[in-house]
């Protein structure tokens, strides 16, 4: 895969309500490990729509990875001012990623009009990528289910890879990170 869309849950869907929640580090590390693996296999571009949560955290990870790897990312929000009603720290994060992306452009050059803009955004991201990485648990559902549904439908007639990151993957990363800490072995 040369181009991958990354998406998944919003923070509140993961039970994360603070920007400094320690669980974010486990989610980010899990995504980072998956991205590095794909970059080393030839991944060149990541597509993000700038949603809070997984997509914004992935953008932060990509800024770090660009110091070490030749990876680019596109920031394609579905409509103008997507971040307008978000808490101020997330708005700053959004603007920073929009400015630092290798390519940034709003898909619909209008303010929010309706759910059709999100549907069109999902379809566009799928059609412009070779596959996706999605933090999703089929048993839990949540907002990523719409993207998963479209990706699976697209997969029926196209070569399209869906790579899942599950809560089990995050739990595994959490345990590995704990074991990497020397204090873990002292007790």
Automatic annotation (TrEMBL):
PANTHER family, per the entry: UPF0398 PROTEIN SPR0331, UPF0398 PROTEIN YPSA
Protein's recorded name: Uncharacterized protein
Upper taxonomic lineage: Bacteria, Bacillati, Bacillota, Bacilli, Bacillales
């Amino acid at each position: 895969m040369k181009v991958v869309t990354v998406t998944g849950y919003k923070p509140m869907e993961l039970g994360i309500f603070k920007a400094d929640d320690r669980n974010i580090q486990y989610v980010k590390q899990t995504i980072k490990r998956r991205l590095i693996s794909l970059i080393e296999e030839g991944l060149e571009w990541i597509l993000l729509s700038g949603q809070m949560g997984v997509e914004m955290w992935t953008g932060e990870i990509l800024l770090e990875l660009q110091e070490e790897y030749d990876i680019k990312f596109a920031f394609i929000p579905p409509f103008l001012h997507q971040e307008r009603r978000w808490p101020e720290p997330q708005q700053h994060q959004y603007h920073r990623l929009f400015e630092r992306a290798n390519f940034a452009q709003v898909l619909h050059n209008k303010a929010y009009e309706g759910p059709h803009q999100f549907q069109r955004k999902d379809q566009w991201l799928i059609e412009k990528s070779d596959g996706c990485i999605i933090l999703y648990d089929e048993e839990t559902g949540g907002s990523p289910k719409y993207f998963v549904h479209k990706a699976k439908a697209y997969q029926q007639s196209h070569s399209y890879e869906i790579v899942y990151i599950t809560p089990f993957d995050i739990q595994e990363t959490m345990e590995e990170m704990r074991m990497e800490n020397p204090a873990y072995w002292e007790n």
